Fold these 4 entries.
Entry 1:
Amino acid sequence: MRTSPSVVIVSIALLISACGADVVAYRKAEPAPAPEAAVDARQEIAQAVGRAAGAHLEQGGAPGVQVAVRVAGAYHAGAYGHRDHKRSESARIDDVYRIGSVTKTFTAVVILSLVQEGRLSLDDCIGRWIDLPNAYDVTVRRLLNHTSGIPNYSERTLPSLGTILRPRYLWRPDQLTALVRRQGLLFEPGTRHSYSNTNYVALGIIAEAVTDRGIDELYRERIIEPAGLRDTFFLPYEQGPDPDRLVVGYERDLLPFATQPITPHNLSWLTYGYAAGAMVSSAPDLARFVDALFEGILLEPPALAAMTRFIAAPHPRIPAQTGYGFGLRRLEMDGTVLLGHTGTIPGFGAIVMHAPGADCTIAAVGNLSRLDSLGLMKAILTELGRTNTWQAR
């Protein structure tokens, strides 16, 4: 889904130069480095992230951002800026944000777990479960890598306007696919790549049909619990965290006047995203998730290999993108290959990327529409590249 001069830099307790400490180390290093080396690495990473986040906020970014970084065995997570547009309440490390299309990576993992169990095949025709024109010409594989040719329902103006005007309206998944039912395919399946939220709504419908379980249960049993995620929820389909932990987002693009707050009570945008964009999470949880994925905790090697088989997929709004796999973007930034996903949903932006060649994972979330998540990611990589910790990987 789509997506301040005063900066509160949150760092580790040992970093005495930081202004305000509220961080978590989200993984234990194995093997553990020497205590002094571990402290030095965490300090370097915390300082690098603080510089990147501070510059991002000063340049007119979100009111606040939350960032989690792992470089080899060193970890840092911090909250920067503010929770609110008036900048009266500091951002917190236990805040939970909407993450938009990063949800797609979760959905792809669920589908691939069903494939490895033999309950689904990548070459199954989706007409068994989805009522769309030409559905029998489209396979599960084509949904996963956006080569189905099915139009994107979220690009339609009237449904989006209706979602703005009815913030508590709850969309059903079949209503979302019905928005493009009268449209033909954009191209012959498999001949092109065209990003479409409809693909991942369809995958959620298929997962529920195959298992006779809610997709929220599948996320929890197959990802959230095995990966040890504490702040990740599929709202409003399951009970979420304490409402006070859900950050208010700020939307500045949908309407031509003022900035619109997207409060936790605004559920319509979440149901408009469903399996393509309804997750909420935190930066530390997103980093845990992606590390668990690439460490082989969530999928067996053949399924992970399929997930990371990228097709050429240039994107006009994401110049760094060179490929798309199954729920994964492949980016290249200054010679570093990154695998993960971006997310935008009204009021929020998110990004999580793993750099396999650098043994590094970075996640960031913020509470502003069209967050410049790629710019923030590049700034973090630039600052990390100047550290001894990065050079010593």
Entry 2:
Amino acid sequence: MKTVLVTEALHPVFYDRMHTAGVATEVLAEGADVQQLINSMRSVQGLALRGRFRIGAELMDKAPLLQVIGRAGSGLELIDLEAARQRNIICLNSPEGNCDSVAEHAIGMLLLLMHQLRKADAELRQGIFNRNGNWGNELKGKTVGIIGLGHTGGALARKLQNWGLTLLAVDPYRTEHWPSYVQQVEMHELQARADVLSFHVPLTDETRGMISRQWLQQLQRRPIVVNAARGGLAKTADLADALQQNWIGGLCLDTFEEEALGFEALSFQSPDLQRLSAHPQVVMTPHVAGWSQQSWEGISAVLADKMLKVLLD
């Protein structure tokens, strides 16, 4: 019987699907260290991750039977993909399971900022009834630019297609047919036309730091920038400077440069992060866009099905 080692808890549907297919599962003890991971990997064919461990060549060599590594979520940056390729280990992710959660979260942050909901709520809790000071700004009629039209960017576009918007997207790697409600453009056109820019790309050598000071300076319409992808796409200092210099009109951030490896903590000591947190045109959430009651199950189900295709082939 083949076995999958699970490094962090997944929804029960993952274990149910594995067991129904005749594949055993083992769960790494909570708080286990790398050595305990190595000891548990020696005889497994599958490894299911979330975010605690970085899986490089050295760890892979400790698992001679390993066939597949599956990530519960969208990013694969914690896995050395080249090392896996060299060892014929297939690497999978499960963005289909949480793309709707991320898309809804991005829209929620955007509306919270544009309609001043956080400010209005805070004032009312202090006994301040300020109608004239809390007028909103409608999303209808705006141009929304999406960077990365994969599962998550595509989900965002689908949800916004009937909102009376112009939808633009940049994705040089998309091979599927482009939906009729999204205009394919080059990056320079996106920078010139967009009122909102939402990032939905993986963190790779190509995308790391792509939201740079130079890139932000080229924006034409002081857009609101939404990053619910990966914190490494931008330097916090560049984002703070962009707000100060009025290159952008606001920020919606679910991911941060200062996050720990497994995304389980954030260093609040960064002066630049403090600059952002003090700014009224910034909305921040703790890397939770992809996690909802529904996506918890969806991610686990998608991951189980993908891993089983490899293990049972």
Entry 3:
Amino acid sequence: MRRLRNVKIVATLGPASNDYRTIRALFEAGADVFRLNMSHGDHAEIRARHEIIRKVEADVGRPIAILADLQGPKLRCGTFADDLAHDLVTGATFRFDLSDRPGDATRVQLPHREIFDALQPGAHLLVNDGKVKLRVEDCGEDFADCTVLAGGPISNRKGVNVPDVVLPLAALSEKDRRDLEFVCELGVDWLALSFVQRAEDVEDARGLAKGRAAILSKIEKPAAEKAFDEILAASDGIMVARGDLGVELPVQNVPPIQKRLVRKCRAAAKPVIVATQMLESMIESPVPTRAEVSDVATAIYEGADAVMLSAESAAGGYPIEAVTTMNNVAIEVEADPTYHEIMRASRMVKRSSVADGIVASAREIAETTDIKAICCFTQSGTTASLVARERPAVPILALTPLTHVARRMCLTWGTNCFITEGEVNRFKLAVVSAARAARQGGFAGETDQIVVTAGVPFNVKGTTNIIRVAPCAERLIYATDPD
């Protein structure tokens, strides 16, 4: 199934998307990556969703990426009696404490002793992405009595931010470490780390993952934005998680930060996801707001590799419609001549390696002649990522014998991933495989030409050093190739 756009769509799974029929419908509507939120659902539920995704993948015959999003040192309140939500009224009093009793309209558990150890009267607590704001009036080692400054809804496990207090929290909690080992053994492709503050947080997770999954850092703390260059260098990908970032920082700071981070990721040839509240109204409505559509379009115009749905696809009433909307917005934006002008104007011109020159040449050849696709053989995904950084105007076909590499590349802009059968050890075989993939995928016909890039010797990471314009007809390849 060929996508008609280059930006990728990440869809979060949850109660509203928990069965084969819905997950397959989400894929067919446009989802390229499925996110498993480790903050919600036990291991049995996560395993069941993973198995369904892999069954969909087998049935459609196309690689699908799975991203496991670790909870991180996310501060959340406890649960309420009968799972009821409560509206806190401005001026009312409300208590947070360590008791595990179900909450009510006057109190709820805050199961983080380190908060009570650090709190002082006058500090502020923000709940539910900042929708509810409270001021601490009195506190002790196991409680905080607050005044509600800005009322609003509070319900089970809503996030709590403490902007006035520095909390000495480890990047990975014990739960995260258990979850990380579980999903790596399960076979996910990407690990998203929440509340990263420094590059050492990423290296800690990489050591635990032991190469079983790629590491994606979520930028949602001011400290992460300040240390972004080091975090980017240590990560395989980035998520601009605007929810908590917009709570911890003034909201007007978020758009320019988003733009800067997306550009830096593209320069580094590492995938970047723009996430949080992209089509939030579609949790309850089959139609998004015009502002939400513009928000999705802005991320695409900026050159993001992927845009993400959270509660819209996990718990909303219209998960398939949300993916369909995002897919249609992407198709329309990428058909706009202005989009291609922006991609050209923001293209990286600083190149320092043979691989950089090869992929730049492939893009230039494809855009100045009648080439239907750029086909790259890759052992690690690096070549495909470098081609994607160029944002070519023709499709990118990424071919690899490694299933896990093909799945990981599903997050990279414009890549159409193919798993080659058997090991390719000669360039002629690479060209034949590329031509077959282009024809079978509907990217080119018998009379068309493609550009093929690869590294010789084969199956060695980082050796991209050859480029060829080739016909799609196999008889012509064998007739003209001197090998």
Entry 4:
Amino acid sequence: MNKARHHLFRAREAHDHSPVTYIELFFDLVFVFAITQLSHRLLDNLSVIGALETLVLFLAVWWVWIFTSWVTNWLDPDRAHVRLMLLAMMIGGLLLSAAIPKAFESNGLLFALAYVTMQLLRTAYMVWATAGVNEGRRRNFIRIGFWFALALPFWIAGALAQSDWRLALWAMAVAIEYIGPYALFRTPGLGVSTVTDWDISGAHMAERCALFIIIALGEAVLVTGATFAKLEHDAPTWAAFITSFIGSATMWWIYFDIGATRGSRMISEAENVGLVARTAYTYLHLPIVGGIIVTAVGDEMMLAHPIGHSELSTVLAIIGGPWLFLFGNQAFKWITSGAKYPPLSHNLGILILIGIGLGGWFGDWQPLTLGVASTAVLIATAIWEWLSLHGGWQRWAPWLGGIFRTKADTN
């Protein structure tokens, strides 16, 4: 039996790149639906409470996906046994996603049950699969199960409570689960996890998270296309459409031109690969993905009403999405570059976006103006980083090289 379980895991040497398999990509398709549901829910609930509710749901969706990505880093998805587990997770993911629009109304129990079932059953599967194969890993998943069990009463109690209490109880559940990795999953009788418990393929984790970024960007492009198709194609709508697509393309450029490749190389060579994966991918990709989702909402608002008065929610969506995206990329690139300071290009972009947001609100800028300005900031950031990485400042403006280049921009 132990020999049979041993074959459930990938065979690899240290620093090997375990390839992403087709079943993992198939599993990710569920989260195209989830991200679409999240962006539509935020668009339909443009208030402080609505934003907080959507944030809690987003954190839960990400936590299911990232923990499954950790698991498939070890498991061999080409094994029928593992494939069946992932297909079962997909059913849960579809139910979870379907419950998102009314998760704080009539579908609270469906969302909570789908979520906790996915987390606990996948963890139980790993405890079973690692028994007699890797005792350190088995103990670690018992610890993880303990932390999920701590959050379980809050998920169920929240699902059975009114919406106001539901938000507070589910926020507590999310907080418990997100503290777990930083507490090294400290568990009575089992202690804490160690670095050796997280012997993953760093390149595989980097590729999985990069694919999730593609999913989020793809959802943003789909929103742009679907919204544009329903509208009258006048000049302001065309301008908003082009602005929206250029913004999504620039986000792709900012993340994939250097960040994704450098992160993959850095984590592949790291000795403490598990700690790097926890910080750079498990946590720091949250604002990157969240920024793309909020940007998709802002783009849809800009397309629907490109001219006219901008409500505060419009300003926050159109500016807040790129701001979150740059903030997450700044932190991710800083961690994976080994630089003393975060990239200056991203720092300045973040500050300018704040200024645009303030100017847009107090100056009553039109949504299209806000969209063009925020997209211009993304383009400027991408160009700055490109010139820094490829020596452009020295070739075209040598006197600017020492001012506009930082180690984080050049590694």
